[in-house]
Design goal:
about 375 residues; alpha/beta; Rossmann fold; 2 domains; eight-stranded mixed β-sheet; 14 strands; about 20% strand; globular; binds 2'-deoxy-thymidine-beta-L-rhamnose
Length: about 375
Amino acid sequence: MMKKNRVSWDIFCRVVDNFGDIGVCWRLSKQLANEHKLNVRLWVDDLQVASKIIQNLDTSLHAQTIDSVTIYRWEESASAFDEVRPAEVVIETFACNLPAAYLKAMTLNKPIWINLEYLSAEAWINDCHGQPSTHPQTGLKKTFFFPGFNNKTGGLIREQNLSKTRDAAIAMMKKLPSLQVSLFCYPDAPIKDLLNTMSQGNAPVECFVPMDSYQHEIAAFFGSNAINIGDTLNQGQLKLTLLPFLTQAEYDQLLWCCDLNFVRGEDSWIRALWASKPFIWQPYRQADDLHLEKLEAFLKIYLQDNPSQILAEFSRAWSEDGITLSLWNRLIAEINELNTWTTQRSQHFESQTDLASTLVIFTENGV
Ligand code: TRH
């Protein structure tokens, strides 16, 4: 079959909640533009939030190019897309619903239309990945594209040079006497219980917390009414430092230099996987405890054949408010063996085709 190289791509990102939507879209956009040499336009509805992730973004501009990606403010006005010719590939991320005028214009040049879904480890996505559907109003074909942890899915976002860069950075880091931990979670996590177990645990801990929405809980734990970026607070075995919200690249480096990482949502989850260190993932809370099903699905595929149960038990405790001192002491007692395991698991998933590549392959194969 003749391969057709479709070079113009439009990616639509609606910032729903937190940073993962734009975190994922920005990483993917840069990779498609710089590794696959595609002309990528990233349409974002909230440039204010996006500026936390996209360095040097000027939130006053309608259009600007950064890292070879042209970023547009996604204006909601009915006429905003009247003059916009759809790209050859349109990626609607997380079912964000395309602008009506743009969708109408798509009926003229009939681009490849992909709906990029949220990441999940659940088995059902294997059967749903790549499934087409016909848009009722326009008759256009839309394909559902699921990121995932095996080759029946679209794969995971991973830059080409990531593992080499990580390994070089880790090789330069010296082992410190205390356990180095990074903490990025949702405010509903049992933060005080975790800090309590760290302070009473069997080993000294240095915990690094990038600024987010739970510094009040952290300050309260230390009996302080406020904690500011750069502050270091001590209690028992615990020394905690509040960091600024880091760039994505800096955050990767934090994950690489820590012995244990607490992550959440979607993008930091996978960055922790690639950091190859032990990590505890907190899924975004959903109704009817669906997030716990997502957690179990991930633990099942990530921890298969691992003789120890501690990562699974601690992960459940973190999402279900069950943190105890004995769990913490078991986790840190096994941290070296766990690091060997997580390094192997990272290598396993690195052997999978990455998401940007599977998207390009899909669009080249003429759909
Ligand atoms: O911010 P999140 O909770 O976003 C989540 C996910 O998008 C999830 O899929 C969605 O359902 C939910 O929102 C509504 O977590 P996530 O996905 O890890 O995104 C955080 C981004 O922030 C990620 O790209 C990493 C980046 N980051 C930094 O750049 N600097 C930092 O200091 C930290 C802690 C994170």
